[in-house]
Structures are given as C-alpha cells and as structure tokens.
Give the backbone structure.
Amino acid sequence: MKVPHRRLALALVWTALLAGALYGADRFLLGPRHVGWQVASTIEEIPSAAGLVPTPRIVPEHLGWPPRVILYRTGRETGCWLGLADQGGADPRLWIGIGAPPLPELLEPFAGCVTPLRVDCPAGWRALSLADDGRVIHVLGELPAVEMRRVLKGLEPHAR
Amino acid sequence: MLPQLLITNLLHGLVSLAWLAGLRRALAPIPAGLWARMLTVALTLPPLIVVLHVLGVLPDNERWVVLRTDLWAEQMLSSPPFVAVSLVLLAGTALLFVLQELRPVIARHQVQHHARRLRDPELEAMCQAVRAKFEDARVRLVGCRQLHVRLLDTDTPTAAVEGFVDPVILVSRGLRARLDAFELEAVLAHELAHLAQGGNRRFFWVWILRAIQAPSPFALILFRLLVEAREAAADALAAEITGKPAVLASALLKLRSGAAAAPHLSAVARARARVLRQAELAATRLRVRTLLDGPIGAQAAPVVTIASGALLALLLWSVA
C-alpha cells in the first residue's frame, strides 16, 4: 500500500499548528516561568508547587514570627527559606531552609555552611541540619547552640 | 503527586482529542480501520506517556514544552471553586464509566453465559466459506488457529465474538431466524472482521487503559468514538470482503427492528430502555447510511498508523 505523502504533510502541518496554538495559549495565559528564588510576603503566599515549607514548632522568644524574609522556588528544583529576625530588628538572625544549591542571593555568604563539610561559615554563625527521606533541612543561626538545637528539634516532624 | 498526574492526564486527553478532531477534518475521508487505530493510539498514549515521564525514561524536554502541566496544575489547584466543580465533573464521568461501559459488559456476559451454545453444521460451513474469503483477500485473523461458531439458544437477536485465546463467534437463534443466507454471511463477515482488527484481546487492553482513566471526560469521549469506529471498521472490512454492503445494511436494520420495551418493566426501566433504543437506532442509521453511501475503505498501511502514533506521541511528550 502506498503512503500518501500529501496526507502525511497535512498531518505534520496540523500537528505543528496545534503545538504552536497550545504554546501561544500557555505563554499568554500563564506568562513566563519564574525561575530562581522568589520573595513572598506571607507563608500562605508560597505556592504548593514550592514543596515543603519548613515551619518550626519552636522559635526562640526574642525572634519575631512570622519570618521577616520568605523565599521560595518552584519548578524542577523546589525550595524554601525562612529568615527570622529579632523582634524589631531588620536582619535575619536565623535561617531555616530546604532546597538544593544554588542558594538565594541573600544566603550566599552561608554557602559554605550548607555543604556537607560545613566549612567557611561566617563568624558567630552556626549550622545544623536534619536529613530524612532524601531532603535536608538546614538551620543557620547567630544563636546559642542550645537554642539552635531546640529549633532543629522542633523541625523534626517535617522530615518524617 | 496524584492531582498533578490527573491534571497531566486530562491535558493529554484534551490535546489528543483536539489533534484527532483537526486531523479528521484535514484528512477526510480517513479509512475506517485507520480511524479506529488512531483512536486506540489516542486512548493508549496519555497514560503511557505519564508512566514513562514518572519513570524518567523519556528524554528531558524542558526546551520543547508547549503546555507546562505543573503550572496549569498549580493554577487549577489554587482555586477552591474550580477544584470543587472539577471533582463533581470527574466523579460524574467515573459514574458514567460504570453505567455505560462496565455494567453493560457484565449484563451482556450474563445473557451469553445463560444461553446454551449449540453446534450448527450449516452455520459452521457458512463461517468457513466466509473465512476462506478473508484468506483470499490476504486478511489475517488475529489469534485464530481454530475458529468456532456456535448458535446461541436465545430469541434475543444478537451476534458477537467471545473469548481471547480461541475466539468463538456466537449467533443467536433469534437473529438466525430473521436473516436470510446472504445477510447471515454478512453478519459472519462482520464478526470475522473484528477478529482481523485485533479481536477481544486487543480491545481488552484498551478497555483496561480506559478503566484507568475512568474519571477523564476526554477518555470517555475517545472511548465512545472508538466503540463506534470499531463497528464502522468491521462493517467496512466485511463489505469489502463480501462485496455486498447493502446486504450488511439490511442485516443491521433487521437486527435493530425488533425488541420493543417489555411491558412488565417499571416506568424507569422502560424509559431507560427507550433512551438506549433511540441511541442504538441512531448509531444503526449512521452505519447503514455509511454502508449504502459506499464505505470509504477499511484498511490503511501500517506505516500510516505508526506515523500518526509517532506524531501524537511527540505532541504529548511536549505537554509535560
């Protein structure tokens, strides 16, 4: 049986047209994909596509809640970082986060803290982490070791 | 994970349906057998592509994505009213699957199993003669080393192919009594044409994939189209083999002309039977018209099915 070339060409053209129309509709309705880290003003604003939000059960009293800085990432590599500052303070003194490198720009000074060897942490900062089910939750803080451990303990249910 | 997979499957179903609708318009007339095979591919590929994506077997296609399913899922799931309406729609479609595709299969199975199967030498000889015509036309009957034909001891006018390994053609006593020899030959050719197009064995796997996609309204539409397309394809092939499309049309009309709703049924059951009968009559009218207008050819080269399947697979791969 002969393969009708005209029909095959028509099928190709129609497939290309449909793909083009779908592409146009997708980009027009949903806009470009936000790549990299995004800023949210509240925890509720973080989309479910960002994955797990590492919300601590225990926060030292001197730190304010909700977090002063909220960062999230969607797409193939999801992630979320919460920065907690002293009550009335501006700069975060505790960062709780999840997500593979690259880190958000604000956290670049802590890049050495989240490596498995934990080298090169800024002076006065400590890093702890919790691993379960292939995910690692990091806690970076300029806090006493006992407070850091308490925060980490309060994160344990997230990893189970 | 599950909502995302469901939304991906729904988008794949929608894209398949849109692709087929446009293709049917652009390439009309499509041979009946090819159309049935394209519908089979369209019903089979969406779950297959999702499974391959989940297993990570498919190559990375970030640059070629036309529909970003994760973003669509995020948008859809972020609207509670949309989620509520969708859940009602999906549950309704799943219910339709049970009522329209699961229950009738069981009911038909029960009717066929309760009736005795009798040997009928005349019917067997006729079936062998029709089979010889298929062999002369070099049309292979799938999975038919031995072909059995039995007379089903019931007044209900029906004919069917039963079984997966050694299929049996069943012709009811009621149908045999209504048809003349030519019409009976056309009916047997129609049932043999089903075997030539894969028979119950192929349809069983398609049905399983349909069952997996039970909540998808697009899978529902594709499957209903496929059921009609299989009959049209078998009609076209039977007409091609026997060379008598009008005789098959006459047999179809006789098959549907009897059996009014039984008076002992409840009002609801009578109404249901009336609706089903109207639908059957409409389908029969379409089949008869197609046969009398001249069937558009039963078969197409396998390479055409492969090419169309590859095109759809490529399109669905880019919906990720």
